[in-house]
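In this supplementary section we document a worked example of the pipeline. Step one takes a protein sequence of length 190 as its only input; no multiple sequence alignment statistics are reported here. Step two produces a three-dimensional model, which step three serialises into structure tokens for compact storage. The input and output of this example are shown verbatim.
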Amino acid sequence: MSTAKGPLKGRAARLGRLMPSGPSSAARTPFVLLVFVLLGGGLIALLLLNSALNQGSFKLRELKDRTTELTDEEQALQRDVDDYAAPDALERRARELGMVPGGSPAFLGPDGKVLGDPSVAVAPKPPPTPKATPKSPPADAQRPTAHPTGTGSTGSTPTSAGPTGTGPARTAPAPPPSATAPASTPTSGR
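The serialised model returned by step three reads:
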């Protein structure tokens, strides 16, 4: 700052001592490198932070989708529970298990007195089961096939359809035992 040829006096001398005269003694290269390193480090930190936030948002989206799926599944299960808990479904399942509706209930009062007229639950009569009737086989199936030669057949049609190959074929299944047939009574083993 001072380019005067003589020594400075007073206030100017004091300021001249604070300000170095001549070219700057501090090198600017380390300062510039420090600024570039700080800026580069800041940019890298921002990129890492941005990628971490993006990764977190993807994870959040996956979790929201999974929550939606689980909510839908929970609602479906709740509908099933509600369907099973409906009075008509409970009644149907109870009948399938052989349960019958109860009669009129009776209640006991605090003094031990019976209130109401109790009645016994009566099982309704089961519907009649249809009896299986054996069906007669068609007329063509009972007739044996005759070959003109009388010595047997060399073709692929068998002469008899029985289990041993010698008797007539059984076309109707055996009828199931009827429900009205007397059941055998167990003995006591004496």
